[in-house]
Specification:
It is built from 17 helices and twelve strands. By secondary structure, the chain is of the alpha/beta class. The protein starts with a helix and ends in an 8-residue tail after the last helix. The structure holds pyridoxal-5'-phosphate (PLP). The site of pyridoxal-5'-phosphate has 14 residues, from helix 6. It is an enzyme of class 1 (oxidoreductase).
């Protein structure tokens, strides 16, 4: 029979599997530098003492203060808020990935570079490009990186001062014109036609010898596929410009077609959108950029390359735009995206776009009788409704968005794209069930009825969230970012 004292001994025995962590295969780094004496404490620091339950409650409470894909449906159009599979997190925590340092000699971290190299190759195939850089930390930084390459290309060809204009459709995400400005270009807006696609006549009018390039999202931010894309690319190419693909909507075409096939020269992808890595409160993200062969000399350095069986960093690209981010991009995010691509496989990735598109069209059809639908053709992975009917009877779209929160959902993107009055942009993504889509549709239908029958309920929403209705003007004018009880 086990004695009481034996029991204690058993539990505290070292080496028991329940308490031991897996061993790291990373060479340990010895702390050889001694700290200067005057920097070493004489007394131990006075650190707060808290019990495990206090600590647990603190962090658990913090974890519930925000809304995310792990606690509910998040139909935020354009952002692709899909579920982040937890296997990605497991893999990102392997000691061989999590416990390495970017300053380690490259021979000691060959496995990490193998992963980055293979991720580059996978993204190359997925985007139809000839080379990829993993450096940019977000889509917007990818845009800027791509535009700097566009500029370097025109400079090399003697058109630095003549090709000053970047064409951007009026349905574009705000980062497109912003990135073009930041890269030193002038922005020319191209209007959309009544189908919600780029007007070719307008495009032809604007394209000329001063065109540096065109930036385009396809499907565009209305969720509509630009079916004239090949012709558009030709028009711009014939005028000597380049064509840039904003890959934020890749979820709609994964495994079906590629920006390369559509004629694009430069592409950015948003790994935190299409490839299921966390959006995490503004970062870190990853916005790899792909280019066609003729632009490879301009890619950021160092380039991760394979020479014989070794992965190496190559900086020998004299025409490179230089480094755009420290180290090699957001490594942990890239590990997650790699895990996602490898667990899904080619078939799985194709299924993503099929389901994302079916889900969006299903939801759009259910909601069409209740909200104005400016574009009624089949959408891709997202669609845009208008709250114009509700606005006419006194309830603007912002109130509808706030009322949605009462039902435990995040609100759709509102007032974007700018070309749709009272826009509500909904992207369900492929990771939601039919039950979730039905329940969300029921809520939007109920709200449409409330607007007609009991508008004050919608006008005073939200009613159930911990933060009641904000005074938005005051919040903008007297910004207090400090937490107060
Ligand atoms: C999200 C988004 C961007 C910007 O990407 P970030 O990763 O947020 O910087 C650009 N274009 C479109 C269409 C987007 O949806």
């Amino acid at each position: 029979m086990t004695e009481y004292n034996d029991l204690i001994f058993e539990i505290s025995q070292p080496g028991r599997t329940a308490f031991s962590l897996p061993e790291s295969d990373v060479p340990s780094v010895e702390l050889t530098t001694k700290f200067p004496k005057q920097l070493i404490r004489e007394e131990p620091a006075e650190l707060p003492e808290v019990s495990e339950p206090q600590l647990m409650r603190h962090y658990t409470s913090l974890s519930t203060k925000n809304f995310g894909v792990d606690n509910g449906f998040y139909p935020l159009g354009s952002c692709t808020m899909k579920y982040n599979p937890k296997i990605n997190e497991d893999v990102a925590r392997y000691a061989g990935f999590a416990a390495i340092h970017p300053f380690q000699p490259i021979e000691t971290v060959q496995g990490a570079f193998e992963l980055l190299y293979e991720l580059q190759e996978d993204l190359q195939v997925i985007s139809g490009m000839d080379a990829i850089t993993l450096q940019p930390a977000a889509g917007a930084q990818g845009e800027w990186t791509g535009l700097m390459m566009m500029k370097a290309y025109h400079t090399k060809n003697g058109h630095r001062t003549s090709r000053t204009k970047v064409l951007v459709p009026d349905s574009a995400h705000g980062t497109n014109p912003a990135s073009a400005h930041a890269a030193g270009f002038d922005v020319v807006e191209i209007p959309s036609n009544s189908n919600g696609t780029v007007d070719l006549v307008e495009l032809k009018k604007q394209v000329g010898e001063d065109t540096a390039g065109l930036m385009l999202t396809n499907p565009n931010t209305l969720g509509i596929f630009e079916k004239d894309i090949v012709e558009m690319a030709e028009i711009v190419h014939q005028a000597g410009g380049l064509v840039y693909y904003d890959g934020a909507n890749l979820n709609a075409i994964l495994g079906q077609t590629t920006p390369g096939m559509m004629g694009f020269d430069i592409v950015h992808l948003n790994l935190h959108k299409s490839f299921s890595t966390p959006h995490g409160g503004g970062g870190p993200g990853s916005g790899p950029v792909g280019v066609k062969e003729f632009l490879i000399p301009y890619l950021p350095v160092p380039r991760i390359e394979k020479q014989k069986d070794q992965y190496v960093l190559n900086t020998d690209y004299p025409d490179s735009i230089g480094r755009v981010k420290g180290y090699y991009g957001n490594f942990g995010v890239n590990v997650r995206a790699y895990t996602y691509i490898r667990t899904m496989g080619p078939k799985g990735l194709r299924q993503v776009s099929e389901s994302a598109v079916v889900h969006a069209n299903y939801l759009r059809k259910k909601l069409e009788p209740y909200y104005a639908t400016p574009y009624t053709q089949y959408s891709k992975h997202e669609f845009v409704l208008s709250g114009s009917r509700q606005k006419k009877i006194g309830v603007p779209t912002m109130n509808i968005a706030k009322r949605i929160l009462d039902f435990g959902y995040y609100a759709p993107t509102v007032y974007f794209p700018l070309i749709v009055d009272e826009a509500m942009m909904i992207e369900p993504t492929e990771t939601e069930t039919k039950e979730t889509l039905d329940a969300f549709a029921d809520v939007l239908i109920q709200i449409a009825k409330e607007v007609e029958e009991t508008p004050e309920v919608v006008l005073n929403a939200p009613h159930t969230t911990s933060v009641r209705r904000l005074d938005e003007v005051k919040a903008a004018r007297q910004l207090i970012v400090k937490y107060t009880k």
